[in-house]
Amino acid sequence: MGLFSREKPQAETPRPVEDEGTKKTPGGAAVDTAYLAQQALKNGGSSSAFFKGAPAPTTSPATNGVTGAANQPTATPAVAAPAMSTSHRPSIVQPAAPTERQIYLQQLKVRIHQQLVEKLDVQNLRSLPADVVRREVRSLIQELCTSEKGLLNSNEQQRLMDEVMDETFGLGPLEALLKDTAISDIMINRWDRVYVERKGRIELTDCRFRDNAHLRQIIDRIVGLVGRRIDETQPYCDARLQDGSRVNAIIPPLALDGPAMSIRRFGHKPMQLEDLLRAGAFTTQMIDFLAAAVQARCNVIISGGTGSGKTTLLNCLSRYINVDERVITIEDAAELQLQQPHVVRLETRPSNMEGKGEVNQRDLVKNCLRMRPDRIIIGECRSGETLDMLQAMNTGHDGSMTTIHANNTRDAMQRLEVMILMAGYDIPAKAMRQQISSAVNIIVQANRLTGGKRKVTRITEISGMEGDQITMHDLFGFEQGGVDETGAATGQFYCTGIVPRVLSRIESRGIRLPADTFEKRKYD
């Protein structure tokens, strides 16, 4: 007797069954076997089998599978969004219709996955080590593929096995996209329309889900792994993948065309400042100054629009925090990948089904002040926690950092005032501005320019107050001059020639910048 029953499965017309990866327990409850399989990968195992009626696994050579490509389209594809051609005229891209062979392979995959679900022993699945789970499940998938009456060549069989493995242990059609390191964003508008951003360009892919129910199942799988929920009472949710990528999902009735999801990729290896420097995001003089400001415990705010690289820049600057300093991070969905050992990571919690138990960022800021932090880093200030953050900056927590959404550095100051008022206090405008001017030292503006390039377009210093107004001056900037033949923005970085007031603070800590760092000029 092997690890699974050896009865030859019947190749019959598939009957209506529940979604892939879902199995009914004896009590009638639906169980996501993919979720259980993922849990099994995290645990050490015993000799208990995970197929029904099977004894303990025997030692056998491992068969390492290579995860395959995304699912083939199974429905009439939608018309792609208008894309800009090299002549800057919109054009409509019509994806190719699925062939009969592609439709057959998709149906065959569903049928084989269902047969796999019926053979899995859900109760014992968690007790096995990761390599045994993958090896034996793949072996069973191969047997099921061989037993099918349809003719499959070796490439089709390998691809089918890979896709079933993705459905069982991963995120189905998304696995192929997640393995592409050139993709920075995955945008799912509906089950049959998936876009990606690759090297700054947004393009339509041929990745498809089976239907809305299939997409919803993948969304439930993602949010369930981080202990959150998404349903009709809470139809949107922030989550994260195991590699730290940020996920936002929204479902009907708020999403009119079915479930939608956005994934912001960060990758397994965090980007370094050297990577951004090679990409032309800033100049050597700019990063030398920012590194010195972080080391000198200046309070820094990074502002910018969606997708401008604020979080990436914050992660990179964190490498200049002293390793002896205690850093506490506060986020709605944990995505920061700080490069320090002495870090405590905190994450907000949504309310439960009864509307109780919510813990927001403001609660966490207040709590972290009792945790003896040297620096506080808030992933993004959105509302009333801004007031608590500024108070922390003014009361001994120098070197704190955060990000906000703003179009430029002046708008960032106005956004701070608005978010302070969201705390619910009636604070005079002059008092708010005094609080901001004394707390914030440097504002870094990041922008996503035409063609997808991301650059630091302003580094501004807050110098104080004049009357009722905050005074500030630019130290470095970027001036766009046009676009090249590919539509990407071109321009020059420049230095204004103003020596920052924080330079004395930097030098008092023994940090010396090159003499020409603040020389007025334009950089090639």
Explain this structure.
This protein starts with 21 loop residues before the first strand and ends with a strand. It is elongated. The model is unreliable at 1-31 and 44-92 (pLDDT under 50). Helix content is 30%, strand content 21%. With 524 residues, the protein is of the alpha+beta class. Helix 2 packs across helix 3 (130-147) and helix 3 (130-147) packs across helix 4 (154-169). The chain is built from 14 helices and 20 strands. It has a 10-stranded mixed sheet, with helices on both faces. A 6-stranded antiparallel sheet has the order 7-6-5-10-9-8, with helices on one face.
Looking at how many chains there are and whether they match, the oligomeric state comes to: single chain
How big a fraction of the residues is strand? 15-25%
- Average pLDDT reading: 80
Strand order of the largest sheet: 13-12-14-15-11-16-17-18-19-20
Report a brief summary of the structure:
The protein has 524 residues and is α+β, with helices and mostly antiparallel strands. It contains 14 helices and 20 strands.
Main attributes of the structure:
single chain, 524 residues, alpha+beta, six-stranded antiparallel beta sheet, 14 helices, 20 strands, 30% helix, elongated, disordered N terminus
Task: Compile the SSE list and pairings.
Blueprint: E1 22-24, E2 30-32, H1 33-42, E3 83-84, E4 90-91, H2 100-119, H3 130-147, H4 154-169, H5 174-178, E5 183-190, E6 193-198, E7 201-204, H6 212-225, E8 236-240, E9 246-250, E10 260-264, H7 273-278, H8 284-295, E11 300-304, H9 310-317, E12 327-331, E13 343-347, H10 361-368, E14 375-378, H11 385-393, E15 401-405, H12 409-421, H13 429-439, E16 442-448, E17 454-466, E18 469-483, E19 489-495, H14 503-508, E20 521-523
Parallel strand pairs: 11-15, 11-16, 12-13, 12-14, 14-15
Antiparallel strand pairs: 1-2, 3-4, 5-6, 5-10, 6-7, 8-9, 9-10, 16-17, 17-18, 18-19, 19-20
Helix pairs in contact: 2-3, 2-4, 3-4, 10-11, 12-13
